[in-house]
Fold:
Amino acid sequence: MLQRQGPDVVIQGHDPAAGGGRVATILSGEIVLMSAVNLDVIGRLPAPDADAVAVSRHWVVWRARRNGHDFLRARNVADPSRPGPEHSLGKAGGAAQLGRPSLDDNRLVYARATRHENRIVKRLLGAKRKKRAKVTVMRSDVEGLSNPSVQGGALLYVRHTRRADRLKLARLGGRGTGRTLLSRSGGTLWSTALSQKRAYVTLLHGTRPRQRILSVGR
Structure:
């Protein structure tokens, strides 16, 4: 669904994302790029097994799961009719998992979980100095870190503890775990999104989960 002034608009496909004046959705093994103004299709990218996508003015990043492994891929779509080559951003298998991506222009954040630690990783897409293009911005070997979203210099994410799930807002690249915007001891805090004034998170409840999207001020 696309929600803005006027009635909600149904978008074909699944796992939609918005950013940089564009909307992306996954449909029949492709990522479909649309203008956020009128939802005209401006590009299509092959993305077999994709189950999550992020989009900005210049980039599309998606996660795919195949044969028990997670993969992250990226393409430059500054010209969506002639996208750049596909870039591999890594993979995880076995007990390791990659979270869904979030983009702000060329800044990508995602979570990586293994048996021994959880991390939130930042990558600068298209950076010339590859050694500095990838850094760990958050790490824990006792608490879960998941579902990061990035906007400007702000990082929104969920920290899972034994007592509660906490929605946290931190400075990207700063020290500490950030401020707690919301804490829930019942249910699971899941996917997030961030705007200039609000933070959003999905709350899952029950063994056959019921979902709600919660909004809190930054």
Remarks:
- The radius of gyration is 17 Å.
- The mean pLDDT is 95.
- The domain at 1-92 is CATH 2.40.10.480 (Thrombin, subunit H).
- Residues 60 and 158 are 23 Å apart (CA to CA).
